[in-house]
Amino acid sequence: MLYVLYNCWVVFQVLIACYLLQPAVLLLIYWIRKAGRFLFKPGHEVKTSVNHHYTFAVIITAHKNLELVPPLVDSLLKQTYADYMVYVVADNCGDADLGMTHPKVKLLKPETPLNAKIRSIDFAINRFVSPHEVMVILDADNLVHPLYLETLNRYFNRGYQAVQTNMLAKNNDTVYAQLDAAGNYFSNFIDRRMRMELGLSANIWGLGIALKTTLYREVVYNHFFGGFDKKIQADIVKLIPVLAYAEDAMVYDEKIDTGDALETQRTRWINAYFKYFKYGWDVFCTGVRRGSFNLMFFGFNLLRPPLFLQVLLALVLGVLNYWIAPVWAWTWAAILIIFPLSFFAIVAVMSNDPRTIRALLHLPFFFLRQLKAFLHIRKANKAFLQTQNNKVMYIEDVLKQ
Fold first, then answer.
1. Which of 6, 192, 339, 395 could bond 245 through an S-S bridge, CB–CB 3.0 to 4.6 Å?
2. Residue 366 in contact with residue 179, Cβ under 8 Å?
3. Helix (H/G/I), strand (E/B), else coil: 274
4. Are 226 and 387 in contact (CB under 8 A)?
5. What are the tens digits of pLDDT across the range 173-182?
6. How far apart are CA 207 and CA 205, in angstroms?
7. Containing H/E element for 249?
8. pLDDT over 70 for what percent of the chain?
9. DSSP-assigned letter for residue 203
10. Residues facing 135 on adjacent strands
């Protein structure tokens, strides 16, 4: 019995160590590949001869407030691509309207509150004015680059059936917003950019995901509070060869700018991690059965605890091993040095804003706020926790920054 417990103890430590060392390994691969491209002239990229104009349905989910939607609709109406229709689901927004009318924009008002993003998406799909080949899911506080849909059309012409676009910061004017943006840069690097470079499926966000409408219809939901991205990616990654990442298709998202907003957001996210933990295990086991490294790696990372929990576990394991196995204690000390250094280096690689780099000095406060959110995760099971957004900005404002 003691032998089994000891082996479980070792395996658990190895898993946490792998998660914390993965960014450093990916960063090393990135530098090696970058050096190789510098030393050797890259070959010509193979381009598809297909030039199909996909019809896009852009679904915007708004809850209780339409104030931020007009700037997003404005950015969509400025697209260089023409074959699209915008569906704005105004859930529980009262008599508010967009203050505009346009043949490409359809405002949908459910008679009874839906109170869930998944229900809002289904509400829009059931009211499409025509069959759309591809659907794009956006949040009310987003903005999109003028080339957004044109870029996505190129990816679908390359044969991809689901594409996660590049989420960037719409606002970067407070320390919390800068730290939130830094977290996005880090996630984009390890879960999207490097996956795409290595030919593996990328993780999705809950916004800026584009996929074939027929593919989305294959996903069935049983829960509606949170975890939209956890459920959809766990299902579609098993149905397609690869879930792509389009770094050149840019969507801008409002970053949280206060500690209270951070706690609300992270409470919802942490709750979704535990609620949908089983989906990561299902994807991993499916990968084992199919002999697919892509699915095994994807599932392995879906099982990965939130970043602050990884660090907290590393600290606890390091202290425990001081008495149990001193060699492991030194190993954990090294990991706890390597991980933050790789985090800082990745953010520096991904961001050209010095404010974001300087904001990393405040990470301990960010960590404590997430720990506080962890202690309140049960709230997310009882209510729809909505992060309050209030930055009314237009795409021209963002592009000038």
1. 192
2. yes
3. helix
4. no
5. 888 888 889 9
6. 5
7. strand 244-253
8. 90
9. P
10. 57, 211
DSSP per residue over 68-132, as a string?
A: THHHHHHHHHT-S--SEEEEEEEET-TT---S---TTEEEE--SS---SHHHHHHHHHTT-SS--
Contacts of residues 121-124 at CB distance under 8 Å and 24 or more positions apart, as own/partner, are 121/59, 121/61, 121/89, 123/89, 123/91, 124/57, 124/59, 124/61, 124/87, 124/89
87 token code pair: 């569906």
Nearest CA to 160 out of 212, 216, 202, 207 is that of 212
Parallel, antiparallel, or unpaired for β 209-212 and 162-169?
Answer: antiparallel
Query: CA 15 to CA 385: how far, in whole Å?
Result: 31
Tell me how far apart the alpha carbons of residues 341 and 24 are, in angstroms, rounded to a whole number. Answer: 8
Residue 165 token pair: 């676009």
Question: Which tokens is 42 given?
Answer: 């890259």
Q: What are phi and psi of 210, to 5 degrees?
A: -115, 135
Asked if 27 and 346 touch (Cβ cutoff 8 Å), the reply is yes
Neighbours of 303 (CB within 10 A): 16
Within a 10 A sphere around the Cβ of 105, how many other Cβ atoms? 18
Among residues of the chain, what percentage have pLDDT more than 90? 56
The reported pTM is 0.89
How many other CB atoms are there within 10 angstroms of residue 222's CB atom? 5
The whole-angstrom separation of Cα 144 and Cα 108 is: 21
| Residues in a beta bridge with 86 | 58, 105
- The b/e string for 126-145 (b: 16+ C-beta within 10 A; e otherwise) is eebeeebebbbbbbbbbbbb
